[in-house]
Amino acid sequence: MKRIVVVLKRRNDELGEIISREMGAPPSIARAEQAGIGAVISSRRSRPSRSFAFDYP
């Protein structure tokens, strides 16, 4: 999951351009808000799984 977050952050500008082009959002909003949310959500979702005690059969 960490690798996904790293890649999303690294490609934030590219994702913002795609979002802007496809959805018509202003480029500044697409980069700052919409493209960045994937990294934020992925980062927050990975925290609980690091400390969770999985029960394997």
Helix and strand composition category: mainly alpha
Number of helices: 4
Would you report the number of β strands? 0
Number of domains: 1
Largest sheet: none
Counting copies of identical and different chains, the oligomeric state is: single chain
Written as H for each helix and E for each strand, in order along the chain, the element string is: HHHH
Shape: elongated
Portion in helices:
over 70%
What proportion of the residues form beta strands (DSSP E)?
Answer: under 5%
Which residues sit in consecutive blocks of at least 5 with pLDDT less than 50? none
Instruction: State Rg.
Output: 15 Å
Gap from first CA to last CA: 24 Å
Mean pLDDT: 84
